[in-house]
Design brief:
39% helix; three-stranded mixed beta sheet; Rossmann fold; alpha/beta; globular; single chain; binds NADP nicotinamide-adenine-dinucleotide phosphate; five-stranded parallel beta sheet
Length: 303
Amino acid sequence: MDTKPTVLVVGSTGMLGTKIITALLDKGTTNVRAMVRSSSDSDEKNREKIDNMKARGVSLVEGDLMNPETLLQVCEGVDVVVSAVGNNQVTVPGQKNLIDAAKQQGVKRFIPSDYSVDYRKLDYGDNDNLDMRKQVFEYLQQSGLEYTLILNGAFMDNVGTPYMPQFDLEHNTFQYWGDGETPLDFTTTDDTAKYVAEAVSDPELANKALEVAGDVLTAKQLKAAYEEATGNTLEEKPLGSVEELKAWIATKKPSASSPVEYVPQQYEYTMVSGKGKLDNIQNDRYPNIKPLTVREYLQKTPS
Ligand SMILES: NC(=O)c1ccc[n+]([C@@H]2O[C@H](COP(=O)([O-])OP(=O)(O)OC[C@H]3O[C@@H](n4cnc5c(N)ncnc54)[C@H](OP(=O)(O)O)[C@@H]3O)[C@@H](O)[C@H]2O)c1
């Protein structure tokens, strides 16, 4: 008889979802089920991911977060739901539908799509994307389902890319708000996925957050780590205080044509203000995982 718990990954074709599937398969202690949208079939990139999942023994089920009737079947016989959906109009209503279906099907644990700073300590309005996490978490708590949150700070993979606004490599500049001395949390996506694979069946994480960080660096230390690992020296450009950053966002947001114009700065705000800092980093809980530091990550990654 198969006694392995069944883990359902929703968002399985996404950037992080794909890595979570790999980490679960590598760990090998669970049956892995992946929800895909039927429309995924027509997407060439997803086709390859789906074929890879099938080849590794993942059981595939079709469902759409915005079609609640599809989710009941998807959650049938599932022990743990791991959500890795992105940030869009589906994030809140889609995950609420998934929570409802999971509850109805007797799922034992729900891991929402967080993978972020500690948004529980933020105020509504601090960050548009993290506001959505707060809404989903409140709904999850009210549902009575057991939950585990995965909090990993910023994805380290974005260090030295335009996704992290501190790095203006076009102008060889490292620009930052605040005094540059506040500790900031970073974890790679691969390491985050490994921690998810541990968390799904860790009994001590019932209704708790797993807080992890591959590295904790101030902005000034981040610049130094980048320079040391890449050999590329950046000009340091302080932009103003944390309060000035808050004012910059408040002015920018109403006139922005897209959230891309201010949401990266909202993330920076949650970090440099210290408000979203992880207070209880528990890497030691899983000594088998050796998360990469920023220096190690950049040294391994071709620029
Ligand atoms: N801490 C950080 O620095 C950081 C940075 C980036 C992301 N994140 C977080 O990581 C998490 C995952 O993000 P990601 O970038 O990996 O997301 P992503 O690549 O955009 O993947 C989204 C997934 O959701 C699926 N999806 C979308 N709409 C759906 C629907 N209606 N029904 C079912 N599935 C649907 C997509 O399926 P299709 O393939 O069919 O479209 C895809 O598999 C998010 O919580 C995000 O905020 C954190």
